[in-house]
Prior knowledge:
Layout: H1 8-20, H2 23-46, H3 51-73, H4 81-106, H5 116-120
Amino acid sequence: MSHPHQSSRETSHTTEAIAHHNPYKEYFTVFVALMVLVLITVGAARLPIPEPFSFLVALVIAIIKAVLVILFFMHVKDASRITWIFCISAFLWLVIMLALTFGDYMTRIPVGGNTSASQTGPVAPMPMEGSH
């Protein structure tokens, strides 16, 4: 049944688009792309990339995979504008949280492995107050 404000030409165009749309081919293409991205992730993990940048490479690949899943398997690609707004808002929130976390990580002071406590042996636990 067509929408009351929709012309017969729009209705036939929509019907033709649905008839020619092959979801299995689309799903298979996305599946192959996801498998290629998994192989790229494994390959990137084996490369000698310095620590903060290896995290960024893995994160970019993971975001690409997440976008493919959201667009195609969660059907956001064909969803309404309000769904797009919520998806984009969620990604913006994720970017904010990752930026804050990465900023904290980059400003930490590195801890060396040869401290005086590790050279003197294990430290005895402190007794609790009130225990005799």
